[in-house]
## 1
Amino acid sequence: MQKLHRRFPDAAITAAFKWMIIASVSAGVAVMHMQSPPVNSLSLEFLTDVCIALEKLEMDKSCRGLVVTSSQPKVFSAGLDILDMYGKSPEHCAEFWKAVQEMWLKFYGSDMITIAAVNGSSPAGGCLLSMTCDYRIMADNPRYSIGLNETKLGIVAPFWFKDTMVNTVGHRTTEMALQLGLLYSPAEALKIGLVDQLVREDQVLTTATETMTKWLAIPDHARQLTKSMMRKPTIDKLTSNREADVNNFVKFITKDSIQKSLGMYLEMLKRRKA
Amino acid sequence: MQKLHRRFPDAAITAAFKWMIIASVSAGVAVMHMQSPPVNSLSLEFLTDVCIALEKLEMDKSCRGLVVTSSQPKVFSAGLDILDMYGKSPEHCAEFWKAVQEMWLKFYGSDMITIAAVNGSSPAGGCLLSMTCDYRIMADNPRYSIGLNETKLGIVAPFWFKDTMVNTVGHRTTEMALQLGLLYSPAEALKIGLVDQLVREDQVLTTATETMTKWLAIPDHARQLTKSMMRKPTIDKLTSNREADVNNFVKFITKDSIQKSLGMYLEMLKRRKA
Amino acid sequence: MQKLHRRFPDAAITAAFKWMIIASVSAGVAVMHMQSPPVNSLSLEFLTDVCIALEKLEMDKSCRGLVVTSSQPKVFSAGLDILDMYGKSPEHCAEFWKAVQEMWLKFYGSDMITIAAVNGSSPAGGCLLSMTCDYRIMADNPRYSIGLNETKLGIVAPFWFKDTMVNTVGHRTTEMALQLGLLYSPAEALKIGLVDQLVREDQVLTTATETMTKWLAIPDHARQLTKSMMRKPTIDKLTSNREADVNNFVKFITKDSIQKSLGMYLEMLKRRKA
């Protein structure tokens, strides 16, 4: 928390979780600082925290907007934690996948205004998290990238990842991006509409809170009904297929060939670190 | 009518309604000049006239194209008439909403080539009307704006307004535009595809009739079948839900909180005028 | 074959059909050279060959990618062969249409990576063929054009042509393109996303094989599942409506008025040639 206070001395911390801190920056606006070292991987534990935090904020009627950002350097979120899908029991994989679904359902269907302050790289599940928000501001640093790169790991983004991306950048761009597992530079992401705005790295969070002001000017009930109208069909598709989607994931991820791919990927990450 | 003749001395007036004049500019092409002072609000009376006029033109097999434009200065249409939703009985609101639906169904499903000559601002229902047309030409005057700004008034664009906009500018742009109630300048509207072409203000109508020539070169039956194929799913969604949509509107618009919002908005308009 | 060898001396011909040659350019990549003089019209005979060739390639597990290109000068494919719809029995028209459907189903649903090397004009069915591929590279020659121009001939692109185009360039662009039967220059096609890349005419095929390398880097099973997820809903729509779609086509195309239009078009083509 000290660390957060050093960075944002004016922010009042309203809730602290193991992997994140919720701070209040101004009337009605919370900021979720993800701090799950080293790269904010979306582990089962982390996702559980995120969902509890989001639920609390959703019930707090004084909270109208949420900024999601990272306290880790260079990364927004590295996406789903592979350690929760590698060498784990089918039961564990199922529990993990339900948590991923829950995170998506809560964010994509949030009544709050949600803005992603993408202050670092954001592959796979990190990209998904940012796409669930109402607006995406990314640091204009060419070393960062964003995209759903699952195929490069030999795995497949599920239909609701795909639907979220189609809703964001359209069918054709999604088709090519998902097949090739493309990671976009900030400039490319802006061009295809995967992010809405690029700013200097040290301006990401302040721009997010300034942008929030514009969204807060809209009467909540009208904005919420409108948001729901836009997103409900996509949300309903998962809601009515959650169990089949879990079974599908477990069956796929526990395959020998897929486990082998994940193992090789983890080895590669280790070598890169060393 | 004198006024119209001063503006378009060559146009033969073929039908005159209380709130609009239908002129014939060339073989097979009619122009609907909306003139419901001061801002072409889409009142129940006005909508009824529009529907009767459109029905007549549709049955007149010699009429293949229709240009819609405004005879009022600075405005194409200010959108739905709030006086038909404020302080009115549920029955009146229901009748009004049926007329709005009817207008949309007739325009969006028209067998004629329809071109909007947007020679002024076009918020809310005015934007909807222009989006039902096959092509939109707007005056390149930065003081004009166009968009579905319902949320700013605390109300919500219904699903078929939303569907029409998604069909025009895509899902993501619609999601943000509707949530924020965005009004776009002509240049911005061109960029997102909300209008197809910008021309000097005094060229809007002539460009519309020139553009019409290009569309008239296509065999009617092939063009009509193609247009229907593109729009039928969207039209069917409303056709099979008209009554529920009316009930939904009446229930929403007669709420105390919404009536209060509308009242405040009307007060604001009065003050602005004074 | 001699002719092909003169053009691509390094290519090993792996299969020769009456109207096309399949060559192997590198490990796992085949090139389909269409050579049905003069303009690669998609006749019943040609389509039958294409489907047999594609089926064989699909079953050959060593073949992972397919480039489709033309051996005819100035044209990729002129589209459906009008001689198979003009003055023919309803039975013949039905058989022809089934072959068109089959071609589309096989290409749009192909497990292989498919790249269109559009080295010439590509109207109507030629445009459709290129749109079924995963990537489109076009020769940057302003004399070439591409688009679904059916309405200009008085006929109508069926719903699955339309769906393919909507998936490629979006709803609004498709609505206008199909109504007006627009043919786009390479530069315009790139701008609306109808093709993905423009290169010098003599670089089309080499760029296609270079691009293929990028796609081959993705694990097949992940790419195939992703491709299927993107395209299955569109494919299912035709699969479950094939017979109705055939009947619809036969009923439409055998109409006196449509036959007359096709006859006039054929006369015009003859005069143009003379």
## 2
Amino acid sequence: MSRSLDFLTEALRRLPGIGPKSAQRMAFHLLQHDREGAAMLSRALYQAVDTVHHCAMCNTFSDTEVCELCADESRERALLCVVETPADQMMIEQTLTYKGLYFVLMGRLSPLDGIGPRDLHLDKLVGRASDGVVEEVVLATNFTNEGEATAHYISEMLKARGLKVSRLARGVPVGGELEYVDAGTIARAMLDRRSA
Amino acid sequence: MSRSLDFLTEALRRLPGIGPKSAQRMAFHLLQHDREGAAMLSRALYQAVDTVHHCAMCNTFSDTEVCELCADESRERALLCVVETPADQMMIEQTLTYKGLYFVLMGRLSPLDGIGPRDLHLDKLVGRASDGVVEEVVLATNFTNEGEATAHYISEMLKARGLKVSRLARGVPVGGELEYVDAGTIARAMLDRRSA
Ligand SMILES: [Zn+2]
Ligand SMILES: [Zn+2]
């Protein structure tokens, strides 16, 4: 039909979760109804590949050597919160309860996917946490098996270097009805119960 | 965080069916794991917007003035099959039962979406079907309300110009078990029954 259209359909399949049917539908839509959007997406991709790097301090995506948050003088530099992704970081920022800095792993330990400590650049985290200013590292990886294993590994590594390491509290979610919370969460909430 | 990343996330939302969460996940994935794919998609989009036009004869997407299929001398030029989309055309091609040419509407009449005869460029179809070579126009729009209405409108228009117009047969799908076929299909199959 059209070689350029085939190439576009093929390229759209590089997007996660997009199969051949979806890619075709997207290509048709862009060419028939939104060429302006297609041109804009082309520019955005080019620009992002060209300019987005990893922040030298926190490892998150940044257009500058050090990201805005790390450069913000009003943040507490003695606190370092470790998260798996920029999305997790944004969630914590939205709570407005944390005023320290971050380190973004950009992943988690996942032996099944072949992601080990070296792939996660944990040496960068160790260097960052050992700057002499950081006093406490708060581990905020997910409470999944992989997130827990990642937290455990990092915890051992940093404690061996004399750093104070903490973990987000586990328990029943705010608004959570016990009837609908899984047993593991309730068990953990029971073990971690606090005086009321 | 990163202006380039925000721009990319925004641009990805121009893809049909992609919400804010999916766009973010796609942007992260491309920048973290597949910058080569991102650069390839950027080029594919640019190239497609730049080179994909509509075939002067059949209206489908084409890199050339007249598409390969329309230029193929081995196709029967007296038969013209009208379909809604390039995907529909490909489905018919896969059956290997049709050797004529096509006209691709690139849509359907849809008053609710504000798509009338003028938006579908039906004048282009009339001109194409009236070239003196086409003898029969086979309407292969979908058997949906909108597809049926589109077929009806085109049929009236072309018959008024003395052209022979036919429609794909309706009936029980091959391999269809009556128990699982909807009543409307069975009713139509009964009305259109043929001697066995
Ligand atoms: Zn940073
Ligand atoms: Zn053509």
